[in-house]
Amino acid sequence: MRQQKPYVRVRNFDEVPFGYSEEEAIEEAKRCLQCQYPTCISGCPVNVDIPRFIGQVAGGRFAAAIATIRETNNLPAICGRVCPQESQCEGVCAMGRKFDALAIGRLERFCADWEAEHHLTSVDVPASNGRRVAVIGSGPAGLTAAADLRKAGFDVTVFESFHVAGGVLVYGIPEFRLPKAIVRREVDGLKRLGVTIEPNRLIGRVFTVDDLLERGFDAVFVGTGAGLPRFLKLPGESLGGVYSANEFLTRTNLMRAYRFPEHDTPIRVSERVVTIGGGNVAMDAARTALRLGAKNSVVVYRRSVEELPARAEEIEHAQEEGVFFQLLANPVRFLEEDGELCGVECIEMKLGEPDASGRRRPIPIEGTEFVIETRTAVVAVGNEAHPLIPKTTPGLRVDSWGHITTDDDGRTSQPRVYAGGDIVTGAATVIEAMGAGKRAAAAILADLDGG
Amino acid sequence: MHRIRTKRTLGPHITEYVIEAPDIGRAARAGQFIVLRLHEQGERVPLTIVEFVSHLRGITLVVQSLGKTTQEMEDCFHEGDAILDMVGPLGEPSEIDTFGTVVCVGGGVGNAPLFPIARDLHEAGNHVIGVIGARSRDYLIYEDKLGAVCDELYVMTDDGSYGEQGFTSNRLADLMDEERRIDRVWAIGPPIMMKACCEVTRPSKVPTVVSLNPLMVDGTGMCGGCRVEVGGVTRFACVDGPEFDGHLVDFDGMMDRLRFYAGAEADALEQYAEHPCSRRTEGTS
Hints:
Chain A is α/β, with parallel strands linked by helices. Chain A contains 16 helices and 14 strands.
């Protein structure tokens, strides 16, 4: 797919790939083998009928194709951009055994964008069945559950603590990977379906889950997502200049700090920025740093390149843009000058025997400490479960990590309360959260109709 | 959207607002705060809730104009105007209990968030001693309100223009020296004042609660920007606080972090001054 050249895109926040033209989409779709027993459908957490929609694209029937996708996927423009297709549908594509797997994600993106360009936004607003469901959190899990429940006739209210809906899709994933206009478009689609969205509502504080049940909601779905950012517990970590990835990305994406002072929220980025961690969020932070004006963006990761948990495409994009990978290194302290960060002291690592995760355990090599001078560091090593909902909902069971315990369909230990997404599983992907939202919506439908 | 029901000036660049927010007001307890955003380009600003004014269905906020956003709020947001976004109540409420004798120390605009705590402590049966201060008479706020809920009230000004000349921490030290038992201290005000109060009570180990107001973005635990070292452990002021055991707080580290955006804030204020109130919008949420 055509995309912005790296030397151009590191100076803007525009999306990197341009997307297929109609001709390109048809050409790609024609490569599909239309397998009699397709593996791709079960490779998709929301089971999109992939061969059918691709066949429709191949025939130039784009409106039919997007309708097929939307039968099971409420957020196709988003999934087409941020799903880890290489480990899902494309990873099991039969074509991929000998040739390049079919570009299913790009075709999905094409269909969703085509739909928006042609303003195919007429929706039938389903009649109300008189029952009400509260959805807490407007990230991928919450939006998916809300859409499925509304389509099934429920009156749905989504409570979001931020001032805009979208959760990680708006505060976390950068504009250049997922334009915020696309998220807004999907959220607007939900509103047209009749979903009510209440921003600026932190459930657990303004109302509790029990309040919602008492106030006439028949069920509550908790999709509050990843919570408090994890830190390394190293000396100097609270210095000015040390950001969590959440803060760094939220200031930039949600608060538009890159347009300061036109927008009021500031951010400070030095010539060199050091990002600690090797996941997708670390790649997002390292690439964002370049766009904020850093000349030199360094990722410090304690294992080797094979173990980098980020998607292949994110690593590739980061490398193309000039992000430097300081592999097999781990920070040991943050150094201070004039009350601010002035450097990150690291130690070299080697890989030992595989640990519980199956990955080789990194071991520090004594005496190899070195300092990376920088006034900006971003800690991107994951999140802890947010304690607020469990703490304010007596009877809601959590595991030792603080994640809400559910059955396979999202039922929690408390009747009429369901949960899904990162608050249940810990850090996962957008599409996995959507899958959880879907299963919980189905469970709510089954339980409420049964009762 | 949250309509400003009343607005009045309490002192130089110190403004009291009652802003419509019935759900927040009903849920709020002493010690909690809100985060507001004035308009579409606005930053998220944390402010402590003073009280719920039920007949106006609004919450009271007392705001000192120190940066661009607070100055803009003072200049451009008047009775009947709307604030675009407000979320709350946030943070843990103050721990109100019957302790015995409690000294409530307030400095500057800190007197306002001190008021509901002193009120609730008084209602819980404590003997409440208020020590409130300001740099001079003009800056002293909430004397009447605190006077009504404190069993004793001492007023200090830095320059001696009103009350007694000196810092609130001086008066606190005198109280600690008296022959009576003090069971707990609350100190709310500028970081340097809270730090001084904690030093006064440290030798006698009288529990001293401080309310921190560090940098925040979301105010809900998600960004970690408000982290402070408390007893060598990193805590988030927005969800673990805003109140902490003052004897354990690393005030110097917190003040360093508070200065981190000073340059950007000065630039923003300067640019704003060239075109004040150009961005006040009714907004859509």
